[in-house]
Amino acid sequence: MLVIGVGNEIRGDDAAGLLVARRIRERNPSLSVIESSADPMTLMEAWSEESEVVLIDAVESGGTPGELHRHEAHERALPVDFFHCSTHSFGVAEAVEFARNLDRLPSRLTVFGIEGRSFSAGGDVSESVLSAIESLARAILEECETGESDA
Amino acid sequence: MTDNPKSAKTRTIKVDYLARVEGEGAMHIRMKDGVLDDVKLKIFEPPRFFEAFLRGRRPAEAPDITARICGICPVAYQMSACHAIENAAGVHVGGQLRALRRLLYCGEWIESHGLHVFMLHAPDFLGYESAIHMSKDHAAVVQMGLQLKKVGNDIGNVLGGREIHPINVKVGGFYRVPTKKELRPLAERLKWAADASEKTVQWVSELPFPAFEREYEFVSLRHPDEYPMNEGRLVSNRGLDIAIDEYEDHFEETHIPHTNALHSMRKGHGAYFVGPQARYSLNFDLLSPRAQAAAKLAGLGETCNNPFKSIIVRSVEMLYACEEGLRIIEEYEPPDAPAIDVEPVSSSGAGCTEAPRGILYHRYDIDENSEISAAKIVPPTSQNQKTIENDLWKFVPQYIDLSDDELQWHCEQAIRNYDPCISCATHFLKLKRETV
Q: What backbone torsions phi and psi does residue B201 show, to the nearest 5 degrees?
């Protein structure tokens, strides 16, 4: 299994995906963990040899900060405008849809979104997001170690 | 969004938020009694004040601060900043350091042109809402585009430390230079990318192009020996031939009420055109034989006055950048030091380099405390704004009988001919068509 953290560490809660990836790597160095941009080809190459992939990114969907969203992206499209992205490059949702159309999705791709509150440049990660980071990291580690799918 | 009021006399097309451009802008077109009455490109991305907060900073900080203006062309900002500060200090960076800068710029051109050709502009020609929609029917082409873009990013990773906002560029050179071994894998990827770019030139040449041409004043750098990226004189097809530090004597910026991006004019001449089409039309002779041959095979002449064909020109430049990058890697010998020392002196320096979208001018005044006392940054998109509006002034009457939806589609395509980067220009896009 491959764990991919996506985010921007100098934009407040947008660091969430990266921080989850780092905690997982620290606690279980034997797992494949990478930090990545949401560039479609970078992601497709990263998971080209993997059948099971977990991807974590911050989201801004109007929910409660720290709220966890889980999407089985190999089954259906991610909600549009859900994941943080810039207008001139691609976000996770676009990258996943490119991969689906190009027939390059892993057989299982679980995408976790952590609802963020503030994405301002130079901002700190919110308290509620920090606790979500910790609980998601623990849940993914547990899933990896037990093979259970109930993160 | 399109409005078509019932009054036969009034017709408005407005796009409140232009898609597939970087940043936030709108377009507004108004027709009165079947005659085009008003065209406005409105850049409402908020002003960014970079020039103001560079004051009081050390010159060495300018490349990394200004790189933050844009996530697509950070290298352009770093290059123009470095050249301006080195110009102020009377220093010239040559040899392999100069070559590595050019290689990094090749990476940015490949990444930026790959993104625009395949992901932002091609869907316009083929009638798709987005590249994702296009990828269902054109999977092989989209895959090639994504791969090309990534080759550009990979050069940024190796030379810049990371693909976005590289961290390895400094005034005088780099913090660390690559080994020959580190560059070698890029050479293999560039060989593939050159072949893919050549196929791209052919593929885009078969797209349907509106019959539209204008007489432009093209402005770009011109260097005696090489297709321009970092250095040269500023030239045009209407007699301009100046050194970079004469830029402000010949160009002026004006604030226009409907846009947060300043409009640029060549003094006494008016609107001008910067970017791939200008570079190509002023420097065709300096392209590689392979890029020239691909352009000719695609039906381009040595100049190109149809802005819709900018997609072909970008593809030709992508081919050139792959070949040039490959050449630099093959000739690379690591320099003795990753940078040369540049001591700030109380002076003023100008730099202008060829960002993917056209000339990017920087000027810094450095005071006796070795701090920046004034900064001026003129990005390509702000220089092209008036030319984009002028294109629409000619284009809309030619296609005025189209339905609102079709006209809006073509107008947005006409704007994307310029690959406008609104975040850069703001100091800009939505379409609004109004019939009065």
A: -55, -45
